[in-house]
């Protein structure tokens, strides 16, 4: 699994997940329940992971939809 995005915006995580699921790319949002530890102030980022084989396609889909992608490594 590779990190696709890292953000403090929970709506962006939902948007990215919906885009990828629409293209039949499995994704795994992680750190989504960290608000319990941080007190819902939104300082801890959430991440979306995809399988290594889907990373290139997923990045292209996000760029095509105007979503800034995490570092291109």
Explain what you see:
With 73 residues, the chain is an alpha+beta fold. It has one domain (2-64): Alpha-Beta Plaits, CATH 3.30.70.790. Helix content is 37%, strand content 21%. The protein contains 3 helices and 3 strands, in the order E-H-E-H-E-H. The chain has a 3-stranded antiparallel β-sheet with strand order 1-3-2, covered by helices on one side. The radius of gyration is 12 Å and the shape is elongated. The model has no long low-confidence stretch (mean pLDDT 87). InterPro entries: DUF2007, N-reg_PII-like_a/b. Residues 1-64 form the DUF2007 domain. This is Putative signal transducing protein. It comes from Rhodovulum bhavnagarense.
Task: Give structural attributes.
Alpha-Beta Plaits, 73 residues, alpha+beta, N-reg_PII-like_a/b, 37% helix, Putative signal transducing protein
